[in-house]
Write a structure and sequence with these properties.
Radius of gyration: 21 Å
Largest sheet: 6 strands, parallel
Helix content: 40-55%
Structural class: alpha/beta
Strand content: 5-15%
Number of helices: 13
Number of strands: 12
Distance between the termini: 25 Å
C-alpha cells in the first residue's frame, strides 16, 4: 500500500471518530419478569441507572429533534434519543415517571390493534404456553401454509415449572445449551412470526387450548388502554409513533396488507391522541424497499430499524439505526454505549 493511501485511510478513520453521531436507544419494557426469552425487559433499577449514565454523558433529544438535526446537517456530538416499541402499559406506569425525573424525552411506537386488547402480545402468550406452563401433552402438531409441523415432547421437553423459569440468556452465559422447551419455543416463534395476523391468532388459540393456558393477559404483560394513551401525551416529553396495527413481519405480507397496517395504524393513533404522528418503527426491524415507500406514502417523515449502530447526519431517515438496550447495570450500559459509538 502506498504511503499516501495509508495517510488517507488514517485521516478518514480520524474524521470518523470525531464525526457527530447520535445513539437512538431501543427499549420495549421496563419490568421485572419471570422469564425474558428475547431480552426485551430492563428492570426499573437498571433503567434508572441507565438514565443516570445518559444524564452525565449525553444530551438527550427527542427523536423528531434528532431527525431534524440530521436533515440540517447539524447533529451535535454526544446525543442520544430514547424510543420504546410495542406499547406495553409499563411504559406509562414505570418508564414515564423515571423519564420525567430526568426531563428526558422519548418516542413510544404503538401497535394500535393491541390497545384495549384483553390478551397479551402473541409472543408473550407463546412464552406462557411453552416456557411457563407445567407438563404439556406429548404431541404438538401445527399446520402452517399447507405444511404440517410435528413435535414429540419427550421427558426432556415436558419439564417442571421451575425448569421453565431458567433464563435462556443465563444458560448462554454459563455455556449450557438452551433447554429443549426453549428450542421448541424458538422454532414455533419463527413459524408464527411470518403469518398474517388472523392466521397467527388462530394458531395461538389452538396452542392455548392445547396447553390449557389462560387467554387472559397477566397483569405485568398487559398493553395500554385508550384511557392510558392520552395520559402519555399530556406531557411534552412523550411523542407517539406508529408501529402498525397488528405487528406483522411486513416484508412477508402482500403490499395491500402492508399499506393497511402502516396507514391504518397512523390514522388510528392520530384519532386517539388528537395530534399528527410523524415517526414509524418497523416491527421486528424488518423492511424492504416497497415497505419504505409505503411508509413515505403514509405521510411519515422517519422510520426506525433494529440495525445496531450509531446514527449520522447522512443516515437515511427511513432506515434509522437503533441500539437495543438489554437489562444492563450502569457500568455495562456505559461500556456498550462506548462500543456502539466507536464501531458505528
Amino acid at each position: 500500500m502506498l504511503l499516501s493511501q495509508k495517510v488517507g485511510g488514517a485521516i478518514w478513520r480520524a474524521r470518523d471518530l470525531v464525526a457527530p453521531k447520535a445513539i437512538i436507544l431501543l427499549y420495549h419494557r421496563i419490568a421485572d419478569t419471570e422469564i425474558d426469552p428475547h431480552q426485551l425487559c430492563v428492570s426499573p433499577r437498571h433503567f434508572a441507572e441507565q438514565l443516570s449514565v445518559l444524564a452525565q454523558r449525553y444530551t438527550l433529544l427527542s427523536l423528531p429533534q434528532c431527525a431534524e438535526a440530521m436533515r440540517q446537517g447539524r447533529l451535535p456530538r454526544h446525543v442520544a434519543a430514547i424510543t420504546f416499541d410495542d406499547g406495553y402499559a409499563d411504559n406509562l406506569h414505570v418508564a414515564k415517571p423515571l423519564l420525567e425525573r430526568y426531563g428526558f424525552p422519548a418516542t413510544l411506537f404503538i401497535t394500535t390493534g393491541q390497545i384495549n386488547n384483553p390478551r397479551e402480545f402473541w409472543w408473550d402468550e407463546l412464552e406462557k404456553v411453552l416456557l411457563l406452563s407445567g407438563p404439556l401433552p406429548q404431541h404438538l402438531e401445527l399446520e402452517i401454509n399447507g405444511h404440517t409441523h410435528h413435535w414429540e415432547l419427550d421427558d426432556s421437553t415436558r419439564h417442571t415449572e421451575q425448569e421453565g423459569r431458567v433464563h435462556p440468556a443465563e444458560q448462554t452465559v454459563s455455556g449450557l445449551p438452551p433447554t429443549p422447551r426453549y428450542d421448541l419455543y424458538q422454532a414455533v416463534h419463527k413459524l408464527l412470526r411470518r403469518l398474517p395476523s388472523g392466521q397467527r391468532t388462530a394458531k395461538m388459540d389452538a396452542l392455548l387450548k392445547w396447553s390449557g393456558a389462560s387467554r387472559e393477559a397477566r397483569p405485568p404483560y398487559r398493553t395500554l388502554t385508550t384511557e392510558e394513551l392520552p395520559v402519555l401525551v399530556k406531557t411534552s416529553l412523550i411523542d407517539i409513533g406508529g408501529h402498525t396495527v397488528t405487528h406483522p413481519l411486513l416484508p412477508e405480507q402482500e403490499l395491500a396488507v402492508q399499506r393497511e397496517e402502516i396507514s391504518g395504524g397512523k390514522i388510528a393513533l392520530e384519532q386517539m391522541i388528537g395530534r399528527p404522528v410523524h415517526d414509524f418503527s418497523y416491527p421486528y426491524g424488518f423492511y424492504s424497499d416497497p415497505t419504505i415507500e409505503l411508509v413515505r406514502q403514509a405521510g411519515y417523515s422517519s422510520a426506525c430499524t433494529c440495525i445496531e449502530r450509531a446514527t449520522r447526519c447522512e443516515s437515511d431517515p427511513f432506515q434509522l439505526p437503533r441500539f437495543m438496550v438489554r437489562d444492563w447495570d450502569g457500568d455495562e450500559f456505559t461500556k456498550r454505549l462506548h462500543a456502539c459509538v466507536r464501531n458505528g
